[in-house]
Design a protein that fits this description.
15 helices, 317 residues, Dna Topoisomerase Vi A Subunit, Chain: A, domain 2, 14 strands, binds zinc ion, five-stranded antiparallel β-sheet, alpha+beta, DNA Primase, Chain A, 3 domains
Length: 317
């Protein structure tokens, strides 16, 4: 049984609802957070993303994080508590690779053509035209689009696309529905809307798998932009599309077989997620934390004028 299957058997609303009284508000649930001295219902639970976040103490994560935080146990013990595992090792049984849903690549091509002058959005994030064209970053007339290819971009199946939230459109909608809200309330509500939505396959996807196959040195990020930017900088970089928790064991066996050194670069404050992937990879992987500074992920670190090489001097395994 893989991690995704374990998680799919434990609905986060049900698990959190065991210890917190949750009230349904539209698409989400809210309740009093037991992780800090909460007076408002600051805890929000998102059933569609199987994700929780407390807007009081900032704690967030999936159902396994919830068990870890509320029971003060580690990852393996959290899985045991979820009642799935006689032994945590079961987690490391390989899943079988299957991608059943694919999209027509002509969509990516068309939306890439529509990008036109809007490619400055990607330039501002550090991308060269060569990367924008290779990945076929696009614009669908309303949202920026990141195509997710099974292998080499444009030469493999198109599995899914990520669409960037249109902040202006969403703010307009929120304003329309809540005419008495001030700007701060609107901005806070905007933050609750997922930044990206996925169209297409919901199978776990390793973004940029083509760039790490048969490589000895591999960099793992937790964001497509970070992985694409690192690849542009000459690193062999990939990223699980659904975040660290979706890491699949067969990825190690399929794509990372030749790896001698693996660098895992989680966003700032998400080091725990990096260690979770490291535990699944076994062997020698280094999980980095960024040096002090105003950046919270790899892209911001690079755009601030730093070099990826600086991360090599960071803490290791
Ligand atoms: Zn809290």
């Amino acid at each position: 049984m893989n991690l995704q299957e374990i998680k799919s058997q434990h609905d986060i609303v049900g698990v959190i609802g065991n210890s917190v009284q949750l009230k349904k508000r539209g698409r989400l649930y809210s309740g009093i957070c037991p992780l800090h001295k909460d007076t408002n219902p600051s805890l929000k639970v998102y059933p569609d993303r199987q994700f929780f976040k407390c807007y009081g103490c900032g704690k967030s994560g999936d159902v396994i994080d919830w068990i870890q935080l509320t029971r003060s146990v580690d990852f393996k013990d959290a899985l045991k508590l979820l009642g799935n595992l006689p032994q945590a090792e079961v987690l490391f049984e390989p899943a079988t690779k299957k991608h059943t849903v694919t999209m027509r690549p002509e969509i990516a091509e068309y939306w890439h053509i529509l990008l036109g002058k809007k490619r400055t959005y990607f330039h501002n994030r550090g991308f060269a035209n060569a990367t924008i064209d290779r990945e076929q970053f696009g614009w669908n007339g309303r949202q920026y689009v990141i195509p997710l290819w099974e292998g080499i971009p444009q030469e493999s199946n198109l599995l899914a696309m990520k669409l960037r939230r249109d902040d202006e459109l969403e703010l307009g909608r929120l304003k329309n529905d809540n005419s008495n809200w001030d700007n701060k309330q609107l901005q806070n509500a905007l933050k609750l809307i997922p930044k990206y939505i996925l169209k297409g396959s919901y199978e776990p996807i390793l973004y940029n798998s083509w760039a790490v196959e048969n490589r000895e040195e591999i960099w793992i990020f937790f964001g497509e932009f970070d992985a694409a930017l690192a690849t542009q900088l000459g690193l062999n970089a990939c990223s699980p599309v659904h975040g660290a928790a979706s890491w699949q064991l067969y990825w190690g066996e399929t794509y990372l077989r030749a790896a001698k050194q693996i660098f895992i670069v989680p966003d700032k404050g998400e080091e725990k997620q990096g260690h979770r992937v490291k535990a699944m990879l076994g062997g020698c992987a280094k999980v980095y934390s960024f040096p002090e500074g105003p950046w919270k992920d790899f892209s911001e670190f690079i755009l601030a004028g730093n070099y990826a090489e600086e991360l090599r001097n960071g803490n290791g395994c």
